[in-house]
């Protein structure tokens, strides 16, 4: 029996999670991905396979805010993501942590999105 790599273990957790949750047009999936350098948030309608809105630490808006990619920056990103969702008319979402553990940056994004009016 071979040991899974970190990447394979996260992918397996994500697939297990995705069996239970799916986004619709009324309640899209708020998918969060965190790499070593950046964080990406997407609002996805799984019925049509379309991304409705997105925000990331790569965007100009985030760079102008002057935040770093840490828990404080993740909070700012959560607020930006909530604002993007509001402009498209999204108020209720399903949170997809992407196989990552729900603490630190991911928790900061979710809490900031809740504070800015998204219902998770």
Describe the main β-sheet briefly: 4 strands, mixed
**Number of beta strands:** 4
* CATH class membership: Alpha Beta
CATH architecture: 2-Layer Sandwich
Strand-residue proportion: 15-25%
Describe the protein:
This protein is an alpha+beta fold and 120 residues long. It has one domain (28-115): Nucleotidyltransferase, domain 5, CATH 3.30.420. The protein is 40% helix and 19% strand. It has helices at residues 6-18, 60-65, 71-88, 105-115, and strands at 29-34, 39-45, 50-56, 94-96. The protein has a 4-stranded mixed sheet with strand order 3-2-1-4. A hairpin with a 4-residue loop joins strand 2 and strand 3. Helix 3 (71-88) packs across helix 4. The termini are far apart. 27% of the residues are buried.
Summarize the structure.
With 120 residues, the chain is α+β, with helices and mostly antiparallel strands. The protein has helices at residues 6-18, 60-65, 71-88, 105-115; strands at 29-34, 39-45, 50-56, 94-96.
